[in-house]
Structures are given as C-alpha cells and as structure tokens.
C-alpha cells in the first residue's frame, strides 16, 4: 500500500528531479571520487541501558585505536599514515567512537597536530561527531570546493561520455549544497556540519550557532528528499522556522520585565539516504537515519557539555520512522518531538520515546494519504499512542492577531505562514502549551492546550 501511495506522491515533492520521480537508479561517481569519498557512516546501535551491540564493538574499537594513533605519531607523518591506510577514514566514520570520547581526544591534541589533520583528511574532521562545529564547517567546505573543482575539470575534459554525465549529475548535487549555504546579512549564518559527496549525497546545514544557541531544532525529511532536489528548500524551511522561533522569543521578551535574549539554531538535516520508489517499503533507510540522527544529537550534547540546549526534532513522513527509532533505541533524551505525515514505527507509544515530559506532538493534514497507514508499526496519531495534537488545518492566532494557513496533502507542512510552522516554532522553544490542537473550537485552539490528544 505504501508503495502505491508513494507513486502518487513522487511527482508532488518540491523540486523533485525526474530521475527520482521515476525511481530510476542513482548514478554513482565512483570513477572519479574513490578512496577519499566518505562511505555511508552509521553509529553503533545502543539499547536503553547504553550498551553497544556486539557487532559494533569491534569496529568502534578499531576507530578509537586509529584516533589514538593519529594523536601519537609524529605530526609530519599523519598524511603518510592515512595514505597507507586508505580505508581508515571510512572505517572511523562507519562506526564512530562515542562523541564525548572524540571531544576529549580533540581537546587533548596540540594545535600543530590539529592543523595537520585538517590538511590530511578534512573528510574525517568534517563528519566526526565531537569535533568542534567551526572545524567541521571549514573541513566540509574544503571537501565541497575541491570536489566541485575536480568534477568541473572532468566535465571540461575529453573523458568518455558516461564519465562526463556522471560528473555533471554529481556536480549538480554538490552545487545544490553550495547554493543552500548562501545567506544575506538579514539571515542567520549558515554552516556545513555534515557532508557526503557520493551517491545521492548527504548534508546538514545549520542556521545559527550550535555552540551557544538556547534552542536547537533538527528538521528530518522523509521519502524523495534528495540533496540535489530539496537541499535549498529544506534550508529555507529551517530559515522560516528559525525566524518564527526568534520572533516568538522577542515577543515573550516584550511582554516581560525581564529580557532573556535567548537564541535559536535550526538544522536542515538530510543526514541519511532518504528512500525512493525502489526502497520506500523497506525499513533499511530508516535504520541508517536512526543511527546518523542519534549520532548528530549525541555529538551536539557532547559539544555542549554542561550547557545543554533545549533540543527538538521536527520530522516528516519516513523521517518520523527514523526519528522514533532513534528516540526509542538509543540512550539519550531530547526535549520535544513533532511528527507530521507519519507512516508509523516500531515504537508503540509516547512512553517508548526518550522525550522529556511527554512533549510529543502529531499533525495530520487533510488529503495526506500517509498517516493512519501504520506501515512501519504503531500510528502515532492514534489516541492510544498518547501524543498531543498539533493543528495543521489552519486557524487564527489571537496572540499575534493573524490568520494561519492550512496544510493540505503530504508536502505542505513546512509552508511559511501555516498553522503547522507556527506550532513547530512554539514547540521548539518550550512553549508546547501554546501549540494549537486540531478538532476543538477555534477560540480555544487559538490559545492552545496540552490536554487534547489526537483522536
């Protein structure tokens, strides 16, 4: 059933390339980007006691030993060491050591050794959770620029037609990341904290400063979201959420005798291979999303130490499955979770999710065929799941004195000016009490209530 629905939805995703809509296989660029390209990296599976699964122990230990070696060999030998072990970087990223250990490892490195590592393997430092975000941004931009230059030279060369076509497709994908990183003086700074230059690509662009933001929100996409087709759209959605959150914080400041000057950061996160028509019915991509999302959040928590931000996840479609798996199968907590257009997950109730104070919200738009399918497990929109209702059909906000547009279908939840975006923003800054639920009188909805569950 889900695959039949996906066929209908495939052509309606914002900016979806024709190759994705038809389910055509991805063109790989292995002929150009080889040993230096990041392999898919997933974290160790951790149960609720914090124990690492047996299959992950060996690779995680290997990664830890390699990082230890990089801290002890002569600085001038780092490049030679990595060159002699072409799979070492990929192996470290495939099964990363705990982010807290990486943060301690990085903190103990001398300045010259850090500089040598940045030169020897920006790919490693750009994607290793626990490394400071400023270093990761510089490293990832280095890999991005160098790969774009390499691909451009291939396109302009006399290489074979197939090689040139592969280069053009990969260049188009990476150019989408470059375009999404552009911002003006009126917008928050954008940093690139995750980058995979192979296949359909993966990236995470941060708006704001993860190092000191009081509130951090991860936007997690679902099926058919690709770097080439949706990176700019997803960054724009993160920018809209950022702007709404900051506007609400300023409003609350204006109503108080105390000024908090709190700040936000939003993460346009496409950190896993989102499924297309060939694999949308399988759970494999959600497993990858589970691990990479969990690693990203654990990395943030490791970086922030005693100064933890209020962390929220806003997940859409297949991304809700990955998010619920991360929040039920890993041993960490976040502060709030919003899910829209969900096909379900193995988690059976809010009690199974590591979300503080039951701050789990679910929205379902009219004519969205994915909710209620329960394709991957329990439907979070049912009363038995225990989530709170998040209005998405349109309303009037009596606080801000403005009409709120409704979302229709599977892909309008992140449209500016919608009730959904207003509710996401409030939930992400700890004001779930002002989230407008569905299905109750408009006046009551305008003030919000956390006592109404989705039915």
Kindly describe this structure.
Helices cover 42% and strands 11% of the residues. By secondary structure, it is α/β, with parallel strands linked by helices. The strands form two sheets. It has an eight-stranded mixed sheet with strand order 1-2-4-3-5-6-7-8. The protein has a two-stranded antiparallel sheet with strand order 9-10. Helix 11 (227-254) crosses helix 14. Residues 14-58 and 448-455 have low confidence and may be disordered.
CATH topology of the largest domain: Rossmann fold
Q: Reading side by side through the largest sheet, how are the strands ordered?
A: 1-2-4-3-5-6-7-8
Report the end-to-end length measured between terminal Cα atoms: 23 Å
Mean pLDDT: 86
How many DSSP H or I helices?
A: 15
Shape: globular
Number of strands: 10
**CATH-scheme architecture of the largest domain:** 3-Layer(aba) Sandwich
Order of helices and strands: HHHHHHHHHHEEEHEHEHEEEEEHH
Class per helix and strand makeup:
alpha/beta
Query: Strand count, sense and closure of the main sheet?
Result: 8 strands, mixed
Strand portion = 5-15%
Number of domains: 2
